[in-house]
């Protein structure tokens, strides 16, 4: 997934359409791998599934490792394919606004995923991939200029490798994304009773 982000947004090959490209790419990846792994490209989603007892700690750990390996490999591949990817300088985001944006849209993303992927009332729906891709594209359009629109610790690592965000932001984003995932998961769990 991160390769799509790196080439469309970081290298700016898709220009103003990069959020749409990312959302459409995510939809395709979700539909092709959702039946195998619930399309866990995001460690925050794996955590939410664990909280809601939809996977084991072992599966969560494996999904998280693979997500980080995938984003790291994709970031390096993007730099090979397009060396200017790394020449970007770290954007200076206002920390409070960036953290708030990451919290809100990570919460919304996890909320959407839990509802379309594991809710009893929406089981066996055919729109789960569209819902997730659309919310990611919407989030990117809304807050890319505020926070780089990561919503995912593995994507944050890719953005760091490609020199878009600083290591401090990776750490701060990861903490706020974990908190957002826990809140969304607990609310979902409460309402799903």
Keywords:
Glycerol uptake facilitator protein, globular, 193 residues, 0% strand
Explain how this protein is built:
There is one protein chain. Helix 1 (2-10) packs antiparallel against helix 2 (18-37), helix 2 crosses helix 7 (128-147) and helix 6 packs antiparallel against helix 7. The chain is globular and about 50 Å long. The protein has a single domain (2-192), classed as Glycerol uptake facilitator protein. The chain starts with a helix and ends with a helix. It has 193 residues and is an all-alpha fold. It has helices spanning 2-10, 18-37, 43-51, 57-81, 84-87, 95-117, 128-147, 153-161, 167-192. The longest helix has 26 residues, at 167-192.
Structural class: mainly alpha
Q: Mean pLDDT, nearest integer?
A: 93
Rounded to the nearest angstrom, the distance between the terminal CA atoms is: 33 Å
Instruction: Report the count of strand segments.
Output: 0
Listing every helix as H and every strand as E from the N terminus to the C terminus, the arrangement reads HHHHHHHHH
The CATH superfamily bears the name Glycerol uptake facilitator protein
Q: What are the segments in which pLDDT stays under 50 over at least 5 consecutive residues? A: none
Please tell me what the overall shape is: globular
| Structure annotation, total helices | 9
CATH topology: Glycerol uptake facilitator protein
DSSP helix fraction? over 70%
